[in-house]
Amino acid sequence: MNGRTGERMNERTDEQVNPPPPSHGTPSFSERLRRVNGRTAPRIVCIGGGTGQSQLLRGLSRYPLDITAIVGVTDNGGHSGLLRRDFGIPQVGDIRNCLAALAPDSSLFTRLMRYRFSEGSLDGASLGNLIVVAMIRMGGSLSAAIETLARDLGARHRILPVSDESAHICAELADGRTVHGEWEIIRRRPRSPIARMFLKPSIRCLPDCAKALAQADVIVFCPGSLLTGIVSALLTNGIQGAIRRSRALKVQISNIMTQPGQTDGFSAGDHLRTLAHYLGTEPDVFVLNTGRPPKRLLDLYRKDGSVPVRADVRPKAGLRVIARNLLEPRGLDVLTLYARHGKGLTQGPHFIRHDPDKLAAILWELALKTRRPSRERNSSPVR
What does residue 207 show for φ and ψ, rounded to 5 degrees? Predict the structure, then answer.
């Protein structure tokens, strides 16, 4: 409170940036994993990071699913990028967003995890990020910190960093240059095409990530940064092999807009081929948006060099394509709702988003159709 006026100071929480779904009560974890039609709830693993992943998790959390989020750790932008440089740790902002997305909205602790300062020297700083860093220092690893926080927050599902080790995503360019770091890749000049992505140093995935992938019914490659998010996670030692060996249905959700410095000029087909290149196999299902964002938002994105992803993927043998209008409802004041603070912090626009309810409904239907018997999932090999 402001002692001079008795009024709340100019505060901001990530609930305003990523508003939670309407509350329907806070069921226990066991209730969320109740048996569906006499069988164990479907297991779904979401791989990604950033806004796209946390947005999807909010939608999925309304269904009786057993959800595991595997979150990338190489982003070096924004407030968590500053913390990476100061403390030499994996990136914490994306996993903190996922944790807040799956925690009860009514909890004061959840609101604190979402709180972001909007003034003074802390402008743009996330209180939740600072809490995670403190827990790393107390517990020794990012995974241990998130496990403790998830338990104390009452998070209904599991959130795993892809690794406890710190690394940066790097790009080898067509002109022979090598660029280290996500935002260095995005802002490179001249913008020579990317020939190859790699991690430096090489890092290992958490064993629990491999186990979750082996036992999944559905594996989802979330919308978000394709090269510096999804591909970065796939380059973590142990992840590609675990996904390829898994009997789960593999689902890729294409981005709505291209990302400057990463997917300039990419169509939906380019997204599909890029994932297949780094994964070693195509997904089983490809989900793409057919809706047209409002002109005022397109004009804003165009200034940043971003345009809509062209929907050019067609069904073929072994690939199902789900093409629908997946945009959030018109009428939302997204310029206010999703505005981000933090002078000098590296961040891009996040105003055009998938509707989490529409995506969740698609994945729920797929999960029910592909769910395996419990004994089969529990016996899946983990190597």
Answer: -55, -35
Alpha helices in 33-88 (DSSP H): 50-60, 78-87
Helix axes 127-139, 142-153, angle to 10 degrees: 120
Tokens representing 296 are 């005022």
Check which CATH number belongs to the domain holding 96 and give it.
Answer: 3.40.50.10680
Which of these, 12, 181, 165, 172, lies nearest to 88 by C-alpha position? 165
Element at 323 (helix H, strand E): strand 320-324
pLDDT digits (tens, 9 = 90+) for 196-229: 999 999 999 999 999 999 999 999 999 999 999 9
Number of domains composing the chain:
1
Do the bridges between strand 115-116 and strand 12-13 make them parallel or antiparallel, or are there none, so unpaired?
antiparallel
Tell me which residue has tokens 């890092």: 203
**Backbone angles phi and psi of 197, in degrees to 5:** -105, 145
pLDDT at 342: 60
d(CA 338, CA 252): 25
Task: Provide Rg for the chain, Cα atoms.
Answer: 20
Q: pLDDT tens for residues 250-278?
A: 999 999 999 999 999 999 999 999 999 99
Q: Does residue 7 belong to any structural domain of this protein?
A: no
Considering only CA atoms, which of 141, 221, 222, 230 is closest in space to residue 182? 230
5 lies in a domain? Answer: no
**Stated pTM of the model:** 0.87
| pLDDT, tens digit, 9 for 90 and up, residues 119-151 | 888 888 999 999 999 999 987 899 999 999 999
The token pair that represents 47 in the structure block = 């791989």
* Structural domain includes residue 383: no
Q: Which domain holds residue 152?
A: 37-370
End-to-end CA distance of the chain, in Å?
Answer: 53
Omega within 30 of 0 (cis) for the link into 190: yes
> Is 200 among the domain residues?
yes
Q: How would you classify the pairing of strands 285-289 and 320-324?
A: parallel
Cα 179 to the center of its chain, rounded Å: 23
Token pair in block for residue 35: 């048996």
